[in-house]
Structure formats: structure tokens, C-alpha cells
């Protein structure tokens, strides 16, 4: 049986598949068997805007947007820029309160652009947007007032930022870069 945050995202996306509430899109059916055992409840205040995005499927989303929603030709071609720049531009266009589910958005972004995304997400949250983000980025995990849940060790539990594996490994590497490289590469030589 699958476990982990990626499985949660797969289950949730089965309810919200695609770019928006009105636009459904899928390139690969990665439906989890666990989805049949979980029911998502929708409350009385359904968000007007909801969105599911994976960095690795962005190319297909951008292509579909250009062919289906660019009748007047005024939409900027999202393929004309680098993957990370167009991905960030696309996310920054979303400025309405709603529910946004993102699966590893850092995959397309440099650390500098992750900081830009962090600023945008905080501003959107201040306007009432809600986010479910599966990430390994210590930058995105640092979003102020975020509730961080760990899916490690067979259970789901809330943890502090400093207790995340992403933070701990990044800090350990940055604080001890030369030692870590020596040790990692020495272990690699032993194999």
C-alpha cells in the first residue's frame, strides 16, 4: 500500500484534477487504491477558485492553456521562457482566494525563485487563499504560520520546521560542507 504525502496529493487530486474548477487535465492516471477508502468533505463555503499543479506536468498544462484559452492571442506563450520562469509566472497569475494544491512546486524553481514563490504564497494566504503543498524544500517549509505535517514513520503528525528532515539535512550540509562532502564521497569510494 502506498503511503506518504504524494499519496495524499494523488487522493486529493482525484477530487480536484486539473488546473481549475472548470478545466480538467491529466497526462497520467496515477490513481491510488487508497482513494476509495478516503472521502474529502466539501464545506458550505466552496472556494470559487481551486487548483492542482505539479511542476512536472506544467508543460502540458501550458500547452493546453495556449490552445484552449488563448482565442484572442493575447496570452503570453508560457513555452517562450525557461520552465522555472514560466512556471513561477503562471503561479503568480493566481491571485484569488481559493484552495491550491501543489505537488513539489520547487522542482521547477531555483532557490532564489523559491523565495519569490514563498512571498507570493504568503501574500495570497493573507487574502484568504489556502494551500496544501507537498514539498522537500526547506525554503517553502519556512512559510510563516504554516502547519507542517510529516508522513514519515507510518503516521501523520504535525511537526516544527526545525524537525523536518529537509531542514535538518540542509542545515547539516551547509554547516559542515567540507566534512559532509569528504564523508559522502569516501562512502561512495567504498562501494
Helix-strand blueprint:
Elements: H1 5-16, E1 50-54, H2 58-68, H3 83-93, E2 99-103, H4 111-126, E3 130-134, H5 138-141, E4 148-150, E5 157-159, H6 165-175, H7 177-190
Helix pairs in contact: 3-4, 6-7
Characterization of this structure:
Strands 1-2-3 form a three-stranded parallel sheet, with helices on both faces. A two-stranded antiparallel ribbon has the order 4-5. It has one domain. It starts with a helix and ends with a helix. Strand 2, helix 4 (111-126) and strand 3 (130-134) form a beta-alpha-beta unit. With 191 residues, the chain is α/β, with parallel strands linked by helices. The protein has helices at 5-16, 58-68, 83-93, 111-126, 138-141, 165-175, 177-190, and strands spanning 50-54, 99-103, 130-134, 148-150, 157-159. Helix 3 packs parallel to helix 4 and helix 6 crosses helix 7 (177-190). It is globular. The longest helix is centred in the middle third of the chain and has 16 residues, at 111-126. The model is unreliable at 14-19 (pLDDT under 50). It is 41% helix and 11% strand. It contains seven helices and five strands.
